[in-house]
Amino acid sequence: MKTRVKANNLIFKGLKIISWVIFVGLSVEAGGLLVNFIFSLVRPEFIQNLYQKLDLSQLYQNSKWAFFGMYGFVLTISILKAVLFYQVVLLVTKIDLSKPFNSWVSKQILKISYYTLSIGLLSFIARQLAKDLGHNGFVLNQLEAFWADSQAFILMAAVIYVIGTIFSKGVEYQEELEETV
C-alpha cells in the first residue's frame, strides 16, 4: 500500500513539473506572438519575419483587416492556452491530495473546462474563416498549426466538464454528510 502511495505521489510530482514546463512554453509562445504583433503595428515591414517564421506579408499587403483578424485569432488562442495551463498549474500546486474534495477544486476543474471549450470554439471559428479566406485567394496554410486541434479541445472540454460536474456533486454530498454527522 505504501509503495502505491509513493508511486502516485511521484507521478503527481512529475505531472506538476510537466504542467509547469508546458505553461512556461506556452507563455513564451504567447509572449513572442504578442511582441511580434506590437512590433508589426509599429514597423509593418518586419511582418515577413514574425515569430516561428510566419511570413504573413502577402496577407498584410492584400488585406490589413484579414491580417489583423487572423493574427488576432492566433494571439487570442495562444494566450488562452497559456491561461489554461496557468489554471492547471494552480490546481496541481494548491490541491491537497489528502483532502482533494472541496469546492475550490471543483470550481477550478470547471474553470479549466470553460477555457478548454473557449480555445476549441475559437480555433474552430478561426479555421473556418481561414478556409473562407483561402477560397478568396489568401494563402493561410502556415496558420493551420494554431487551430489544428479545435475538435480535440471541444471534446476534451466536454470530458473535463463531466468530471468537474461529478466532482462538484461529490463535494455537495460530502458537505451534506459532514453536516448530518
Automatic annotation (TrEMBL):
Transmembrane segments: 20-42, 65-92, 112-130, 150-167
This protein's UniProt keywords: Membrane, Transmembrane, Transmembrane helix
Endpoints of the signal sequence: none
Keyword ATP-binding belongs to the record: no
Protein name as it appears in the record: DUF2975 domain-containing protein
Species whose genome carries this gene: Maribacter algicola
